[in-house]
Design goal:
Length: 272
């Protein structure tokens, strides 16, 4: 007897960002037909409160009409890294309003620019993460940090990720585990990271790595054997996962999410 998956199959919409900005409704309909049920947003405009050109309340209606959900969003915090906490808090208020309109469960800090990736800035960012986490948690939402590969670069025996883990409050700052980047750039495995911070990795990003270039690729095309690296969801604290591909599409983004969905449903969904 087929057991219903514990988690909704999710997609980070950055994967199909161009399609979303051209025709969000048709794109979401197509993604739903592939089996995606939950989405992570990208590209919120805080000044006017829009997602993909729609006011947040209008975008929520689209999700409701399609009977799909959005549970997390990536928000543009990096430009506030070296600005005052008052300015940051003003933007966080905008993010909270947008998140509440969509009924998101998590607001996520996704990235810092290459020129910001210094050890001093990781310390500054850790402070900012705590500030945001307190503000977001007080609003009844969750807050998370999403890793890439640059956090794992060694700086005289220490990494940026070490600073993030050590200097942020685990009650206020959860983690979104991008397993591609862990396999690409870290000396640790996803399972080891989860073992070190159990219950804190509330979200995962799942994507594959090209066997030659090590760039992104569709699930099943690359070198990552997820059956051997997936952490235990309960130990992780997993609430949501998102399939993602940030580029290097074999054909085009929509074909890529279809191919990844097909592989995931056939080979990996049984674990989740």
């Amino acid at each position: 007897m087929f057991e219903k998956p514990k988690f909704k199959m999710g997609l980070q919409l950055y994967t199909i960002n161009e399609n979303m900005n051209k025709d969000a409704v048709a794109t979401l309909k197509a993604a739903k037909s592939m089996g995606y049920e939950d989405f992570e947003t990208f590209g919120f405009d805080g000044d006017i409160g829009t997602f993909y050109g729609y006011k947040s309340s209008e975008f929520k209606k689209i999700l409701e009409e399609l009977q799909i959900t959005a549970s997390s969003g990536h928000f543009g915090f990096s430009s506030y890294l070296n600005r005052s906490n008052d300015e940051l808090k003003g933007f966080v208020d905008q993010c909270i309003r947008g998140a509440e309109d969509l009924d998101l469960k998590y607001i996520t800090w996704p990235w810092i620019a290459p020129e910001q990736r210094t050890m001093d800035n990781f310390k500054i960012m850790a402070d900012k993460l705590n500030v945001i986490g307190e503000q977001v948690t007080s609003a009844g939402l969750g807050f998370a940090y999403h890793n890439h590969g640059f956090e794992f670069l060694d700086h005289n025996g220490e990494t940026g990720f070490d600073i993030i883990l050590r200097e942020t409050d685990p009650e206020l700052v959860k983690l979104q585990l991008d397993m591609y980047w862990v396999m690409h750039s870290s000396n640790s495995s996803p399972r080891e990271l989860v073992k070190d911070q159990p219950g804190r990795y509330v979200m995962w990003h799942i994507k594959d790595m090209d066997k030659i270039t090590r760039d992104y690729t569709e699930l099943g095309n690359g070198s990552i054997d997820y059956t051997s690296i997936l952490p235990d969801p309960a130990e992780s604290g997993l609430e949501f996962y998102y399939i993602e591909q940030g580029g290097n599409y074999t054909h085009n983004p929509m074909r890529s999410i279809a191919d990844s969905a097909e592989f995931f449903k056939k080979h990996l969904q049984k674990y989740l």
